[in-house]
Amino acid sequence: MPEPIALFAEASAVPRRNADDSAVRIGRMHPAAAAVLLGAGGIAMFAGANLAEAAENLNRPAEVPVPRLSTAEMNAIVSGAPAATETPVLLTISNSVGVSGKNISSDVTAVQQRLKDLGFDVKVDGKFGSGTARVIRMFESMLNGKENIAENSGRILPGSDVAKALASKDAPRWVQMPKSGVGFLNEDTDGFGWGSSVTKAVITDAGARYQADWLATHPGSPPIGINDVSKKGGGITRDHETHEAGLDIDIRLPRKDGLTGARVSWKTYDRDATEAVVRAFASDPRVERVIIGDWTLMKRIQESDAGWKSKVVVWSDHKDHVHVDVAGALSGPNTNPVVE
Questions:
Q1: Does residue 200 carry a pLDDT above 80?
Q2: Does one domain contain both 247 and 305?
Q3: Is-contact 225 274, C-beta < 8 A?
Q4: Are residues 101 and 35 in the same domain?
Q5: What is the dihedral of CA 113, 114, 115, 118, to 10 degrees?
Q6: Cα 271 from Cα 262, distance rounded (Å)
Q7: Are residues 275 and 201 in the same domain?
Q8: Which residues 6+ apart lie within 8 Å of 3 measured at CB?
């Protein structure tokens, strides 16, 4: 609360009787001085818009609520520092939740509710089942970067990195990818428009870099054409071997006619614009790998002095798109501080 206009300080060891006996009227006096005058270390402070109101609050019967200052607010006034705010507890579990876990109903409910708050499609019923297991595995992959969620344990232990990450205010969320933004356009047409909030930020930031570093001087080039990320519910899909946990991005190749959707062998394929797209993503510390299908571009990148060139690899089945792997929130040094 703001610093009150008037305060009364009362020694905690002295029975409260009236403003002239057990209390000291301090007005603007430093609260620490009031404690000295009262001969006691602990003081209770009563606020009011003026001294009369503060005195009235002081002398109300004990069972009548009065506007007292909290301990944090009193300490802040004494020290001159802002009052500390309490950090909300976002998740507390007493035992393991998940595959082969104890799965106490209250713990399962807490995990389900936290995952739901983070945007995951999970039923909050206190019962552990395959749906909750799948979402826990998705969250684990969003932390460790594993491309196939089945590789994860599906279990959360109290005090583990997964539990800490799930309780963190910086936990990755399951979100819909933006339809467009500076320097990029979401061209997905088959429902692969969902993923990690980290991936969303990577796309947004890459678009801004691409706009500043390429489109600003090449206005005829197309924006970055985002294609597939993950399905709304995440998990396994027949269309991809990966793209299960919202950390995979497919990008359509730019063309010289200002559109996207090309193959490396086409005359309309724009290699220079593709290099700019690769640079926009690979230069992001949250990106761990960029896959291309253009050997000529690969040679150009490897002969450059780009600090990110080791992230770029060539796969022969990527001749019609660029693939970006976003790092898990706990995998590698270039990630979000979700565990303190």
A1: yes
A2: yes
A3: no
A4: no
A5: 120
A6: 11
A7: yes
A8: 77
Q: At what angle do helices 295-302 and 271-282 cross, to 10 degrees?
A: 50
Residue 232's domain is classified under what CATH number? 3.30.1380.10
For the chain, the farthest-separated pair of C-alpha atoms sits apart, in whole angstroms, at: 94
Q: How many domains, the chain?
A: 3
DSSP conformation letters of 41-90: S-EEEEEESSHHHHHHHHHS-TTS---BPPHHHHHHHHHTSPPP-PPP--
For the stretch 242-300, pLDDT in tens is: 778 999 999 999 999 999 999 999 999 999 999 999 999 999 999 999 999 999 999 99
Considering the domain architecture, whether residues 199 and 317 belong to the same structural domain is answered as yes
The answer to whether 119 and 175 have CB atoms below 8 angstroms apart is: yes
Alpha carbons 155 and 132: distance in angstroms, whole number: 10
- 140 three-class SS: helix
Which of 109, 143, 167 is the last residue before a domain boundary? Answer: 167
Compute the Cα dihedral for 304, 309, 313, 318 and give only its sign.
negative
State the pLDDT at residue 316.
84
Domain co-membership, 29 together with 143: no
Say yes or no to pLDDT of 337 above 50: no
Question: Is pLDDT at 186 greater than 80 in this prediction?
Answer: yes
Report CA torsion sign: 83, 89, 95, 99.
negative
Strands (E) in 139-199, as ranges, are: 155-156, 174-176, 180-181, 184-186, 194-196
Q: Which of 1, 9, 2, 3 is nearest to 32 (CA)?
A: 9
CA distances from 191 to 14, 233, 239 (A): 69, 10, 11
Q: Which amino acid is at 124?
A: V
Residue 161 belongs to domain with CATH number: 1.10.101
Which of the listed residues 138, 167, 196 is the one where a domain comes to its end? Answer: 167
Do 153 and 183 share a domain, yes or no? no
Q: So what's the pLDDT on residue 96?
A: 98
Q: Which domain holds residue 127?
A: 97-167
